[in-house]
Structure formats: structure tokens, C-alpha cells
Amino acid sequence: MASVVLEHVAKRYGDNPPVISDIDLEIREQEFVVLVGPSGCGKSTLLRMVAGLEEITSGTISIGGRVVNEVPPKDRDIAMVFQSYALYPHMSVRENLQFGLKIRGTPQAEIDRLVNQAAKILGLEQLLDRRPKDMSGGQRQRVALGRAIVREPSVFLFDEPLSNLDAKLRVQMRAEIKKLQHRLQVTTIYVTHDQVEAMTMGNRIAILDKGKLQQVGTPLDVYEKPQNIFVANFIGTPPMNFIHATVADGGVALAANGFKLPAPATARGALASRIGKAVVVGVRPENVLEASRPTRGATAKLELTVDLVETLGDEVVVHGSQGEDQIAFKMDPHNPPEFGGKVAALVEIDRLHLFDAETEQRIAD
């Protein structure tokens, strides 16, 4: 297995602004790291630079301790699975799995061993004589995975491999990929725009926006302590609520439009030097509770006007407003509020997130 280390990696096309800016990132041996961000943020470009399919403008990329800036893709000991299955339509599953090995001159006995092993791992044993047109999307994606497995690489690279699958099959396949990586213990870099996919699959996730690395950490780290407003808004479903406020009362209160919230006790020291300054208060929907539900620690009561109710089966998401601020939270589906009505909610104060309104960076807590 091998680690992957990116140091000051940048990419630009001509005189245009960089699409990747000064990325420093280490993927440790056997680790599963997910690159996640909105469309156009540079995550696939970064993955293709690791693969050698895109030249880097500056910086270094190392795989297994070897700088690979000038090493062609075929010599980097990586295997890549693309969004499109990229299978040869005129070949059977067996022939698709064998093709890359034959090109490399692998002995036939070894080819048979590797193909049979991959087919067993992926449940393709009964499909080896079929052609891609006779298989479902999920089966084709398994073949694409199998083609990567037979190479026995040091690093797996996945570029949005589940984007062409329906929602139910995506859930099934992401579990299979995670189990596969755990079984094979191969260092893996996985690209997706789906933050749920990132949270459920990665040992760590690296969040990008506009070619810049915003935060790297475990799923729980980035969820509980987002380092800026972008990360806070991108991670979590439904997304975090944001309230614009001013630090008041010596740093113990946050004055919003028409109401006040107590400041979290852990943040009051940092707020003492920000009296009168603008902050953005973040609160996740799960930390806004119905008035009848048990709470954890100090709370503040809000009375919201109901603007929208979304029924999800086991719960409803209520979108309410208090003055100019919009707040979403979850409720029991059997007693939803009425559109335009009022609903009382409790905000868990110790679970508020505070950000500087100008820099959009997290305020230390």
C-alpha cells in the first residue's frame, strides 16, 4: 500500500485564474479519503492530477514516497474508476477484466487467478460471459470496479462512480465500495459532490470550493466544528440555519433582528473583544426542537411563522421565519403545524456555531 502526498499543488490554464490553488493534503496508507465539493470546485481535476491525466502547474505529488510529477499514468501503480463505466461493449465481462492484464503481458494463469478472485469478491461469477449491454447499471459498475481490483494497485481513484445510478442502488453500491476498500486495505481517494456519500464513506473528508481546500477532517469533525460558513452550509441535511446578529451585553448575548439569543458559555471569552461587531450564528436543524421535546442544556425560545412544511415520512421539516431570519427544523410527522401559523421552538444554546461576519471563519470556542 502507499500514501499519497500533495504539496503546494496548483493548476491553471493559460493566464486564467487557478482552478486548483496551493493544495496541501496527505492521504495515509490504507486510508479512504473523500474529496467533496460543489460542481466546478476542482475535485475531479485534482484527482486527475494524482492519476497523471492532468499536468500540474506547480507543486509536487508523491505516491508511496516517490515524486510522480513526470511519471506517466501507467507507471504510477494506481487504478481509476470513472463516472462512465468505460467498458468495451463487444467484450464479455471476463474479457473486460482480462484486457488490461493482457496488455501488460501478465501470464494467463495469473490472469485467471486475478479475474476469478475479483469476480468472487464482486459477485460477478455468474456474469463472466455476459456483455455490458445485457447487464444493469449496478452490474456494469461492479465490472468497472473489478477491472480496477485485478490490477492490485497501491491506490484506488474513484471519480464520481455512482452518479449514473438511481438513489436506491447508490446506497447499496456505496456500502459495497466501502466494504471492498476495508477488505482490500487499498489507499483510496474518492470524488463526489454528494455530501451524504462523503460523510458515510470516508475515514476523512476534504472539502473544496473554488479550487481551495476549505477543511480536512473526519466526518464528525467537520460536522461538529466546521471551520467556515461554506463548510457549515455544505455539510449537513437539511443545511445549517444562519442568523445575522451583533455581539451584545458584554459578549453574553447575540442580538438578531427583533430577538436575542444567549451566547454559548464556551464562546463568551472570544466574544468579549467583539462587542458591537457582526457575527453569523449557525444552528443545525436538529438543534432546534419542538417546545415539548426534551433538550440538552440551556435553551432559548423562538416563536416562528410557518412558511413551508416538507413531509419526509418519519419526520417533517418545518421552515419558519423570525423577522428576516429563516430557520428550518424537524418535527414529529403526526402533528405538523399549519402553513402561516405559529410554532414554538427551542434553540439549544451550547450547540450554536459562531462565525465572523467579515471573514466567514469560525470564532474559537
What does this structure look like?
The protein is an alpha+beta fold. The protein is 24% helix and 32% strand. The strands form 4 sheets. It has a 6-stranded mixed sheet, sandwiched between helices. A 5-stranded antiparallel sheet has the order 13-12-11-14-20. The protein has a 5-stranded antiparallel sheet with strand order 15-19-16-17-18, with no helix packed on it. Strand 9 (204-209) and strand 10 form a beta hairpin. Helix 2 (93-103) crosses helix 3 and helix 2 (93-103) runs parallel beside helix 4 (137-149). The two termini are 38 Å apart.
- Taken in chain order, the helices and strands follow as EEEHEEEHHHEHEHEEHHEEEHEEEEEEE
Low-confidence stretches: none
- What is the helix fraction of residues, given as a range? 10-25%
N- to C-terminal separation? 38 Å
Shape: elongated
Cα Rg: 25 Å
The residue-averaged pLDDT reads 91
**Strand count, sense and closure of the main sheet?**
6 strands, mixed
| Number of β-strand runs | 20
What tags apply to this protein structure?
five-stranded antiparallel β-sheet; 9 helices
SSE topology sketch:
Blueprint: E1 4-11, E2 20-27, E3 32-36, H1 43-51, E4 58-63, E5 66-67, E6 78-81, H2 93-103, H3 108-122, H4 137-149, E7 155-159, H5 167-184, E8 187-192, H6 195-201, E9 204-209, E10 212-217, H7 219-224, H8 229-234, E11 241-248, E12 253-255, E13 260-262, H9 268-271, E14 278-283, E15 288-290, E16 299-311, E17 316-322, E18 325-331, E19 342-348, E20 353-356
Parallel strand pairs: 3-8, 3-9, 6-7, 7-8
Antiparallel strand pairs: 1-2, 1-4, 4-5, 9-10, 11-12, 11-14, 12-13, 14-20, 15-19, 16-17, 16-19, 17-18
Helix pairs in contact: 2-3, 2-4, 3-4
